[in-house]
Amino acid sequence: MKRIAVLISGGGSNLQALIDAIASSMLPAEIVLVLANRANAFGLERARKAGIATRVLPLRGWLEASRPRDDYDADVAVHVSNSRPELVILAGWMHVFGPAFLDRVGATVINLHPALPGQFPGTRAIERAFEAYGRGEIAATGVMIHKVIPEVDAGPVLGETVVPIEPGDTLADLSARMHAAEHELLVKVVRALVTAGRPS
Predict the structure, then answer these.
(1) Average of pLDDT values for 64-93?
(2) Cα R_g (the chain), whole angstroms
(3) Residue 82, Cα to own-chain centre: how many angstroms?
(4) pTM greater than 0.90 (yes/no)
(5) Which of 120, 95, 91, 103 is nearest to 189 (CA)?
(6) What are phi and psi of 17, to 5 degrees?
(7) Lower CB count within 10 Å: N or C terminus of the chain?
(8) How many CB atoms lie within 10 A of CB 162?
(9) Cα–Cα distances in Å, from 73 out to 65, 77, 128?
(10) Domain edges within the chain
(11) CATH for 2-112+144-160+182-194?
(12) pLDDT level of residue 126 (50, 70, 90 thresholds)
């Protein structure tokens, strides 16, 4: 089975989708590490309940100590690569990685972003899409998964799905629809990656 490391910053609902897909044999993979940049990230608890090794490396401590950001990225790469993953998934990870991480980690790195390619890069993508819909600028938004490069929410797209915005939607309505789409697309794309070259 393919070895996967998952990097998170928050609740870990996308992590849970992967855990559930593995438990149901839908995804022939093993999550060998969940690393968070926040000690209170609820996704860590999800990982512990599933018996997955966890690690916390807060960026804030590095910045407060005036240590170079590249050193943080390199340290994350060391801890991730020590678990020998073949695939690294940024699932709600709220930092942009540069070459200090990408050149050292020794695995394919993919990112899940709650917007379509070229739309709403960076933070608050769902909120910004909802606001754009309210101004009549878009009729729908979506979710994409892409390979990671040292640029915000850029890189070759591996999968995407359109998420409609319905008249009368609240931000909570759209967020719920987006999260459901994220979970489905993430499992689909990761399954395609880990089964590539294997007989169906």
Answers:
(1) 92
(2) 17
(3) 20
(4) yes
(5) 91
(6) -60, -40
(7) C
(8) 11
(9) 15, 6, 28
(10) 2-112+144-160+182-194
(11) 3.40.50.170
(12) very high
